[in-house]
């Protein structure tokens, strides 16, 4: 199954298209608040402009006790209405707050750890069986109709995890662990990006969520658990050699090879991912090549340095990485 | 400083009827030096406050240029006008300028100019301290922008969250510059707050009991108390940050037992009241303008005062709603939701009272009143979205997105800048003696109203479409380009509105209509003196006989006399009923405030570069403080009956 980035993210990154259990409830609350706010706004503005119009340059009407009393009644009534509306809103809000606090079926949840880095997302799927632990980056696949529980933390500065269609945001704070959850109901690709200012490349720290049917998800998961097919053709073999002898290996890991560093994203199945550089570029061979050649041009300030490779080596290592499906 | 009992016998003629006494009074209050020295040594609250207002307005313009650069960069996707480093400096400087160097100083400066006049006093309570506060603030402004030009502009936001602003992730001096700039404004803010509280509580004109204080003065009193309670938190916080960076205290470093969240509590316990500190004076200005232009006393005076006080108290119970995503336990968050919702009630009460005032008054639609209507149109949208973001689940969706950017610009432009422009049109004649042009004023109003809405309304939608804050660029595929372009066009309209205002000010200063004492037929005491007021503001202290103020006896304001003419004295009255209590001698002009401000500024700026800077600066400051406080021989007999 080949997944494609949507040509435009609009709708795949939007509070207006809730696609999970908590997001639906929040969108309902939002709709209610917008309707009430519009009514309140129209009433107050109409009252203001009526007050100005009717009193503008009118003859001096004496301020009688009776007029002051009727003003008093009107202000009291308006204040009482404000209190009642706010109280109704509070009750509704607390109800939604309770409903979205935790999944109902937590026992069945999929557990994923997300660790924020400047400026990418480390993703670790948890499992009771150690051989089924899975590390990846910047892309999370989840089954639909199953709660997903995220454990959020950070190793450097504060980041914030937010997928507008799926859940409200939670911060990733060094020294703390936070929870977030969602249960996707519509298969599809969703995008989000870091919501807490985290330094130079805060703007280029996006993440992609791929929600699949349980069968597709299992197939993907089992494929990811396998080490990638060793390269067979000479170009990719050369590419692997370049990778293992160039600075790449100092920061990145590739399953089934001696590369095991954890400074940068795990690249075991990098060829199967939709984006590069944390959601910045579509994953195409030419994009990967320009990224390796000069990351600072695409993401100035990123921690990955430019790697000086010959033209042939660059092509080889690109072919090798793209082959890591 | 001395206080002498008031003479027993009643005065017969007011001072203003005695030319000799008037001449002596003029000599006493006028600056004792001319030229540059006089400019540097003056302690006249009106001169100091004018400098404050002009400096703060310059900061508004600079912060606006920062914002214009951001809008330029964001006007289309994947733009390359600003890189991430420069963009981060621009947005951080914009926020810090607008919050710390424009909004709060501008509001306190309006208070420093008008509170003494509105309560019928000749001066603020501590004129030298006042001058010191201004110079500290000025040094902070210059420091921030000099550093910006030297490419050490702050890049950690106006909030400087740790660990990003901590020693590990913010190399260089940029975060230190932020911490010390904030320190400068804290000092100036607290000084201004003390002035305003003492002046409003102890120097009111006889007869101005607590229930006759103009609402603008009440709003400044509430804000001043808030400043005194809120500013120390960020003072402590920013010095903790400076210590973490300079001497490795690890207060915010989780690896050494510190905590990153502690910073957020310290910052927002100040930061949330800060928002109310900025717009409560705006509410006071609205009350002044509505009273004058509806030609009746405000409806529900007691409710208005209590609403201001309630807002000031509740503002301290809201800070966690900036931290819902960190997160807190659900029960705790519910408390802060409820508090955030409750604060809508006093705001609502004030809005209803203004509507009732206009409904039963006779409204004149001059430019100040137009800005009041602009306040209604803009601020209420911000208030309603404010109630929305009080909801924890909804806030988690829009927190740190452009929805929140839209929300607080509606609140702060609507709640502070619209009233401020209204107040400029309203009080400009008092400060300069000339009227601003009504035609240009209407142009400015409409451009500003349109510009603000075109710029900020689309941001609500952008935020809901996933656009997060503080990003220097975005992908074309996100589809955010069109609305961002609209917002950037709106920014041009706002800029043209501000240019119209500047043209109006320059043209009116040269050839505006002469205002006279009370051009708007207002009720409060600042309109009882000349426009502009003379050095001593009130030769005769007005006496207040009812809440109607000047409307009570328009051309025949009762006055009292008995203050000496040969030295600067103000009348001290009782807190509650404002009965005359004593005379308070004020100090003369002095260079010490400027010198001390330079020494303190040197200490804090030095501390940016080396911890020893603080020690050296303190050693220099001590003898200056001593010189300031050195007692002087009395200049005249203390107990003298100088009844005229």
Offer a few descriptive terms:
heterodimer; A: 325 residues; alpha+beta; Immunoglobulin-like; 12 strands; 37% helix; 19% strand; elongated; B: 644 residues; mainly alpha; 3-stranded antiparallel beta sheet; 18 helices
Supply Rg of chain A: 27 Å
Residue-averaged pLDDT of chain B: 92
Envelope shape of chain A: elongated
CATH architecture of the largest domain in chain A: Sandwich
- Beta-strand content of chain B: under 5%
Low-pLDDT stretches of chain A: none
Distance between the termini of chain A: 11 Å
CATH topology of the largest domain in chain A: Immunoglobulin-like
Spans where pLDDT lies below 50 across 5 or more residues of chain B:
639-644
Describe, in plain words, how this protein is organized in 3D.
- The complex is a heterodimer of chains A (325) and B (644).
- With 325 residues, chain A is an alpha+beta fold.
- Chain A folds into 2 domains: 1-213, Cupredoxins -  blue copper proteins (Immunoglobulin-like, Sandwich), CATH 2.60.40.420; 234-322, Immunoglobulin-like.
- Chain A has 7 helices and 12 strands.
- Chain A has helices at residues 21-55, 65-99, 214-225, 234-245, 285-293, 295-298, 311-322, and strands at residues 110-117, 120-125, 134-137, 139-143, 148-154, 159-163, 167-172, 178-182, 188-193, 206-212, 275-276, 281-282.
- Chain A has a 5-stranded mixed sheet with strand order 3-2-1-5-8.
- The longest helix of chain A has 35 residues, at 21-55.
- Chain B is an all-alpha fold.
- Chain B is 62% helix and 3% strand.
- In chain B, the strands form 2 sheets. A 3-stranded antiparallel sheet of chain B has the order 1-5-4, with no helix packed on it.
- In chain B, a hairpin with a 6-residue loop joins strand 4 (569-573) and strand 5.
- In chain B, helix 6 (174-202) runs antiparallel to helix 7, helix 8 packs parallel to helix 11 (344-360) and helix 12 packs parallel to helix 15 (438-464).
- The chains are: A alpha+beta (325), B mainly alpha (644).
- The interface between A and B is large, with 92 and 81 residues.
């Amino acid at each position: 199954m080949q997944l494609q980035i949507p040509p435009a993210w609009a709708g795949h990154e939007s509070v207006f298209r809730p696609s999970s259990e908590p997001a639906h409830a929040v969108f309902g609350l939002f709709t209610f608040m917008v309707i009430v706010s519009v009514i309140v706004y129209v009433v107050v503005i109409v009252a203001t402009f009526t007050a100005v119009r009717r009193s503008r340059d009118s003859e001096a009407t004496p301020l009688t006790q009776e007029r002051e009393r009727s003003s008093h009644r009107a202000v009291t009534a308006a204040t009482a209405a404000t209190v009642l509306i706010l109280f109704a809103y509070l009750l509704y809000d607390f109800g939604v707050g309770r409903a979205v606090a935790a999944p109902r079926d937590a026992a069945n949840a999929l557990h994923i750890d997300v660790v924020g880095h400047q400026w990418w997302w480390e993703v670790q799927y948890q499992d009771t069986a150690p051989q089924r632990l899975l590390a990846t980056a910047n892309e999370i696949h989840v089954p639909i109709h199953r709660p997903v529980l995220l454990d959020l933390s950070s190793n450097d500065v504060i980041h914030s995890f937010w997928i507008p269609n799926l859940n409200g945001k939670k911060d990733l704070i060094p020294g703390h662990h936070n929870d977030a959850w969602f249960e996707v109901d519509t298969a599809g690709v969703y995008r989000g990006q870091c919501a807490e200012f985290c330094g130079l490349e805060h703007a280029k720290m996006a993440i992609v969520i791929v929600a699949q049917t349980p069968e597709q998800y299992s197939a993907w998961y089992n494929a990811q658990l396998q080490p990638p097919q060793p390269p067979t053709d000479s170009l990719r073999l050369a590419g692997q050699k370049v990778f293992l002898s160039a600075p790449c290996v100092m920061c990145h890991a590739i399953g089934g090879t001696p590369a095991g560093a954890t400074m940068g994203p795990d690249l075991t199945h990098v060829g199967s991912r939709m984006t590069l550089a944390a959601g910045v570029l579509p994953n195409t061979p030419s994009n990967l090549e320009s990224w390796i050649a000069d990351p600072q041009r695409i993401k100035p300030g990123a921690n990955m340095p430019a790697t000086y490779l010959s033209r042939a080596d660059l092509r080889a290592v690109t072919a090798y990485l793209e082959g890591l499906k | 400083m001395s206080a002498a009992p008031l003479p027993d016998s009643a005065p017969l003629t007011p001072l203003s009827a005695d030319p000799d006494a008037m001449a002596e009074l003029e000599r006493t209050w006028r600056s004792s030096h001319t030229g540059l020295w006089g400019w540097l040594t003056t302690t006249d609250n009106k001169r100091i406050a004018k400098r404050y207002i002009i400096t703060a307005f310059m900061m508004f313009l600079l912060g606006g240029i920062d914002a214009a650069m951001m809008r330029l960069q964001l006007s289309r996707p994947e733009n390359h006008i600003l890189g991430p480093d420069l963009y981060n400096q621009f947005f951080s400087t914009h926020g810090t300028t607008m919050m710390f160097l424009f909004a709060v100083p501008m509001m306190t400066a309006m208070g420093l100019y008008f509170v003494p006049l509105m309560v019928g006093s000749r001066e603020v309570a501590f004129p030298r301290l006042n001058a010191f506060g201004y110079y500290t603030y000025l040094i902070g402004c210059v420091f921030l922008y000099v550093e910006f030009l030297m490419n050490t502009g702050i890049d950690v936001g106006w909030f400087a969250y740790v660990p990003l602003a901590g020693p590990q992730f913010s190399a260089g001096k940029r975060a230190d510059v932020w911490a010390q700039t904030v320190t400068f404004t804290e000092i100036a803010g607290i000084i201004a707050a003390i002035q305003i509280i003492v002046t409003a509580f102890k120097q009111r004109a006889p007869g101005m009991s607590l229930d006759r204080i103009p609402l603008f003065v009440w709003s400044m009193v509430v804000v001043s108390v808030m400043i005194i309670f809120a500013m120390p938190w960020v003072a402590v916080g920013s010095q903790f940050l400076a210590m973490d960076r300079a001497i490795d205290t690890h207060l915010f470093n989780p690896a050494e037992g510190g905590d990153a969240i502690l910073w957020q509590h310290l910052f927002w316990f100040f930061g949330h009241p800060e928002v109310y500190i900025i717009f409560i004076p705006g509410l006071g200005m609205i009350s002044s303008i509505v009273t004058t232009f509806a030609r009746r006393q405000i409806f529900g005076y007691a409710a208005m005062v209590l609403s201001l006080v309630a807002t000031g108290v509740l503002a301290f119970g809201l800070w966690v709603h900036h931290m819902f995503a960190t997160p807190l336990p659900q029960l705790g968050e519910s408390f802060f939701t409820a508090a955030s919702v409750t604060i809508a009630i006093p705001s609502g009460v004030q809005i209803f009272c203004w509507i009732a005032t206009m409904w039963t008054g006779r409204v004149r639609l001059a430019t100040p009143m137009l800005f009041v209507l602009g306040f209604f149109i803009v601020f209420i949208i911000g208030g309603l979205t404010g109630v929305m973001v009080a909801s924890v689940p909804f806030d988690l969706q829009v927190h740190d997105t452009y929805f929140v950017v839209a929300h607080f610009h509606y609140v702060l432009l609507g709640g502070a800048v619209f009233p401020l422009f209204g107040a400029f049109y309203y009080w400009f004649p008092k400060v300069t003696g000339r009227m601003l042009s009504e035609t240009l004023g209407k142009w400015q109003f409409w451009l500003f109203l349109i510009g603000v809405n075109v710029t900020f309304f689309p941001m609500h939608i952008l935020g809901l479409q996933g656009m997060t804050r503080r990003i220097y660029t975005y992908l074309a595929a996100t589809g955010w380009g069109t609305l961002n372009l609209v917002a950037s066009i709106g920014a041009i309209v706002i800029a043209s509105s501000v240019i119209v205002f500047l043209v109006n000010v320059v043209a009116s200063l040269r050839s505006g209509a002469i205002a006279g004492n009370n051009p708007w037929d207002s009720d409060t005491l600042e309109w009882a003196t000349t426009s502009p007021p003379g050095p001593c503001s009130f030769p005769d202290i007005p006496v207040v006989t009812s809440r109607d103020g000047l409307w009570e006896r328009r051309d025949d304001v009762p006055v009292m006399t008995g203050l000496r003419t040969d030295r600067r004295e103000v009348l001290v009255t009782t807190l509650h009923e404002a009965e005359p209590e004593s005379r308070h001698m004020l100090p003369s002009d002095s260079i010490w405030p400027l010198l001390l401000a330079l020494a303190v500024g040197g200490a804090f700026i030095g501390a940016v570069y080396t911890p020893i800077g603080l020690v050296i600066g303190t050693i220099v400051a001590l003898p200056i403080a001593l010189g300031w406080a050195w007692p002087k021989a009395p200049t005249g007999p203390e107990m003298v009956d100088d009844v005229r």
